[in-house]
């Protein structure tokens, strides 16, 4: 089993992800091989909250060009974590609003 710090890699701070915070929906970049159960357990352990559900999606890498050279960015996995209504909010995101 992986450590919670290895599963949750980084929070995603975008305009769209910040719009979900009042509904207790938080977005994270997660390990590509992590499943929904592992993600929920990692969020509960790291932030001491209660998770209601987890939605995951794979983000494809994009083609990038620099002059005549082209390549691809890495693909990654995103998780949208919804907390229970009785749960406290994640304090890290409160400072960003």
Describe the structure.
With 97 residues, the protein is α+β, with helices and mostly antiparallel strands. Helices cover 26% and strands 36% of the residues. The chain contains four helices and six strands, in the order αβαβαββββα. It has helices at residues 4-7, 15-19, 36-47, 91-94; strands at 8-11, 25-30, 51-59, 63-66, 69-72, 76-83. The strands form two sheets. The protein has a four-stranded antiparallel β-sheet with strand order 1-2-6-3. Strands 4-5 form a two-stranded antiparallel ribbon. Strand 4 (63-66) and strand 5 (69-72) form a beta hairpin. The model has no long low-confidence stretch (mean pLDDT 94).
Concise overview:
This protein is α+β, with helices and mostly antiparallel strands and 97 residues long. It has four helices and six strands, in the order H-E-H-E-H-E-E-E-E-H.
What structural keywords apply?
4-stranded antiparallel β-sheet; single chain; alpha+beta; 97 residues; globular; two-stranded antiparallel ribbon; Alpha-Beta Plaits; 6 strands
